[in-house]
Amino acid sequence: MLEEHEGIEVVGQAADGLEALESIQELQPDVALIDVSMPRRDGLDVTAEVRAMGIDTRVLILTMYTDEQYALRTIQVGAAGFVSKTAPFEELVKAINTVHDGQRYLPDEIEETFSEELAAIDAKKRPVDTLSKREFQVMCYLATGLTNREIAKELGISVKTIDTHRGHVLKKLKLRNNSDITRFAIRHGFTRA
C-alpha cells in the first residue's frame, strides 16, 4: 500500500531486527517504519542502535501499544514517533510524512498526556525510568511469560546476561520475583493482561 502511495518510495524491507539494522545502515532511508515486535532484535533495540550509529534515518515505531507510558519509552530510545498497528492507512501516511518533515508524531489520543509526562520527567524520575533499555526489554518479555532462555534467543544474548538484567529489574523496582514483574508491567501499561 505504501509503494502505491504518491510521495512515498519504499526502498527496502526486512524480516527481522538484524535485517532491519543492516538495511538501514546500507540504504540510510529518510524514515524507517519499525515494528516493535520483531524477531532477533525488537523495535526498541533497533531504534536505539540506529541512534547510536549516528544515522540520520528517523524511526517511526509501529506498535499495538498506544498508551503514554509506551510512547515515552519509544521516544526515550530515540524514535521520532509511533503509530498504532490498528490506525487507519491515512494516519500511517500522516505519521510518515510528519516524521519525514522533522517533527515528532504521536497519536492524538495520547499527545496531551504524553506532553505532561515528558515535562514531569525531570521533576520526578519514576522507578521504571532507572531501567536501562535492555532491562526494560527484559522486564516486558518476562511479563509476557517468556523464560530467560526464550528471551535470550529473542534478543540474541546469553541466558546469563538475561538473568543479570532480571536481577537489576528486581532490585531497581524493589520487586521479589517474576510474578511481581508481571503485575508491575501490567499495572503500568507495559504489557497486556
Describe this structure in words.
The structure is a single chain. The chain folds into 2 domains: about 15-120, 3-Layer(aba) Sandwich (Rossmann fold), CATH 3.40.50; about 125-185, Arc Repressor Mutant, subunit A. The chain is built from 9 helices and 3 strands, in the order H-E-H-E-H-E-H-H-H-H-H-H. It has helices at about 15-25, 45-55, 70-75, 90-100, 110-120, 135-145, 150-155, 160-170, 180-185, and strands at about 30-35, 60-65, 80-85. Strand 1 (about 30-35), helix 2 and strand 2 form a beta-alpha-beta unit. Helix 1 (about 15-25) runs parallel beside helix 2, helix 3 packs across helix 5 (about 110-120) and helix 6 packs across helix 9. The longest helix has 14 residues, at about 160-170.
The number of strands is 3
Q: What top-tier CATH class of the largest domain fits best?
A: Alpha Beta
In what order do the strands lie side by side in the largest sheet? 1-2-3
Percentage of residues in strands: 5-15%
Query: Helical content, roughly?
Result: 40-55%
Major β-sheet profile: 3 strands, parallel
* Rg computed from alpha carbons, rounded to a whole number of angstroms: 17 Å
Class computed from helices, strands and strand pairing = mainly alpha
Number of domains: 2
The backbone outline, from C-alpha atoms, is globular
- The CATH architecture classification of the largest domain is 3-Layer(aba) Sandwich
Note poorly predicted spans.
none
Topology summary:
Layout: H1 17-27, E1 31-35, H2 43-53, E2 58-63, H3 68-76, E3 81-84, H4 89-100, H5 108-120, H6 133-143, H7 148-155, H8 159-172, H9 178-187
Parallel strand pairs: 1-2, 2-3
Helix pairs in contact: 1-2, 3-5, 6-8, 6-9, 7-8
